[in-house]
């Protein structure tokens, strides 16, 4: 079995993931990072550059610098930050555009709450790494904008999307595969994650109140108390839409909920989220685990989507280890180790660097998929390595 140690995770991070993203993906001619690179390393600069990609790169290198104090990580973080400030932040209405072209001009100027959340996440991490107060102020300003324009005072939670000028939108979908809904698990989960990171930099009563209410709403409306899967799409008043099971989001949420409760220092929420984390992990372990150690993507209309996705398996390693840490159940530890072994053997691209993002059922790279793209970024697998290195050291 591949080594399951602090050094093995840090070697993957420092020796593969971070060098790839700070060299291969940089667009030296136009600035920023390429919009897309496929598995054959073909660059497509016509692909839009998403705020999600850039904010996640900012978070990745900011956290890496905070943990390891390597100046090269800070250089990449600053480079990414400059691009976000100069191209993705809307100078007229505030907030970040969904995407821009390689000239830095808006392609999709919607203000999707998901993109705002990840920008808060990245900006707050840059502040934590550098102490740059001006960047923290930008994160706080964005937090207030999101609350002012997307918070639902009637039913709680935040709506999915607004227009550039923060007006209501008819089509609020996060992506083409999602339902057009008022609220979604995915957006609210990552807004919780953004609030958690912002709290570590700016622990103000207003933010504590906002985060507590949002986490409670997530636990009440999104976690299904009968199946311990997450419901994915909702009307304004929390009526569930659709029947998709997302194993990746289930296991990712299991540990992010505990993290949020612990940062809040709310003992009741800590106990509740830890109990749920183990219950969710058990369902993911029983339903989503393959015999080869990998984890399934989702169950859609009662049909399993059997492609293996990088982010799902990255989150499975952390989520199962988290469940093991809470419960002491060895099955979760063994499943976490087996998934890491599968990742090392199949997802890691030994020839060109970084990871393949989607694999076929047999473990070979799926044709026509991106290595770099609007969603294909270093966040999930770099976070896996940093989380596990810290957890194993602790």
In short:
This protein is mostly helical and 394 residues long. The protein contains twelve helices and 15 strands. The longest helix is centred in the C-terminal third of the chain and has 22 residues.
Could you walk me through the main structural features you see in this protein, from its secondary elements to its overall organization?
The radius of gyration is 20 Å and the shape is globular. Strands 2-3-4 form a 3-stranded antiparallel beta sheet. It is mainly α and 394 residues long. The protein contains 12 helices and 15 strands.
Give the tags.
single chain; 394 residues; mainly alpha; 3-stranded antiparallel sheet; 12 helices; 15 strands; 54% helix; 9% strand; globular
Structural class of the secondary structure composition? mainly alpha
The number of strands is: 15
Q: How many DSSP H or I helices?
A: 12
Shape: globular
Q: Describe the strand arrangement of the main beta sheet, using strand numbers.
A: 2-3-4
Low-confidence stretches: none
Question: What is the CA-atom radius of gyration, in angstroms?
Answer: 20 Å
Blueprint (SSEs and pairs):
Elements: H1 6-23, E1 37-38, E2 49-50, H2 51-68, H3 71-88, E3 99-100, E4 106-108, E5 111-112, H4 113-130, H5 133-150, E6 161-162, E7 183-184, H6 185-199, H7 205-222, E8 233-234, E9 240-241, E10 245-246, H8 247-264, H9 267-288, E11 298-300, E12 303-305, E13 308-309, H10 310-327, H11 330-347, E14 358-359, E15 370-372, H12 379-393
Antiparallel strand pairs: 1-15, 2-3, 3-4, 5-6, 7-8, 8-9, 10-11, 11-12, 13-14
């Amino acid at each position: 079995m591949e080594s399951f140690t602090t050094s093995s995770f840090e070697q993957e991070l420092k020796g593969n993931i971070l060098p790839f993203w700070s060299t291969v993906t940089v667009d030296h001619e136009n600035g920023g990072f390429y919009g897309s690179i496929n598995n054959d390393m073909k660059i497509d600069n016509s692909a839009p550059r998403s705020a999600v990609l850039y904010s996640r790169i900012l978070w990745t290198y900011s956290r890496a610098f905070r943990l390891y104090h390597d100046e090269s990580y800070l250089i990449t973080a600053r480079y990414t930050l400059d691009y976000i400030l100069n191209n993705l932040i809307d100078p007229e209405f505030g907030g970040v555009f969904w995407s821009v072209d390689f000239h830095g001009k808006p392609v999709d100027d919607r203000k999707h709450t998901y993109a705002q959340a990840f920008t808060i996440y990245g900006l707050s991490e840059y502040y934590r790494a550098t102490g740059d107060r001006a960047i923290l102020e930008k994160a706080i300003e964005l937090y207030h904008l999101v609350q002012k324009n997307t918070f639902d005072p009637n039913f709680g939670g935040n709506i999915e999307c607004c227009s550039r000028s923060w007006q209501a939108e008819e089509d609020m979908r996060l992506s083409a595969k999602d339902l057009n809904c008022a609220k979604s698990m995915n957006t609210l989960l990552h807004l919780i994650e953004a609030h958690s990171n912002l709290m570590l930099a700016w622990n103000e009563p207003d933010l504590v109140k906002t985060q507590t209410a949002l986490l409670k709403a997530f636990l009440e409306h999104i976690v299904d108390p009968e199946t311990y899967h997450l419901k994915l799409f909702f009307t304004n008043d929390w009526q569930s839409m659709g029947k998709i099971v997302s194993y990746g989001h289930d296991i990712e949420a299991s540990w992010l909920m505990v993290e949020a409760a612990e940062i809040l220092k709310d003992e009741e929420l800590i106990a509740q989220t830890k109990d749920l984390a183990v219950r969710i992990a058990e369902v993911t372990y029983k339903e989503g685990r393959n015999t080869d150690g990998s984890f399934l993507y989702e169950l859609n209309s009662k049909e399993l989507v059997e492609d293996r996705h990088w982010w799902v398996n990255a989150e499975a390693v952390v989520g199962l280890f988290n469940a093991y840490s809470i419960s002491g159940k060895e099955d979760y530890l063994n499943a976490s180790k087996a998934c890491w072994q599968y990742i090392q053997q199949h997802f890691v691209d030994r020839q060109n660097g970084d990871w393949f993002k989607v694999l076929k059922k047999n473990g070979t790279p799926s044709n026509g998929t991106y290595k770099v793209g609007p969603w294909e970024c270093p966040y999930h697998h770099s976070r896996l390595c940093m989380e596990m290195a810290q957890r194993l050291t602790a």
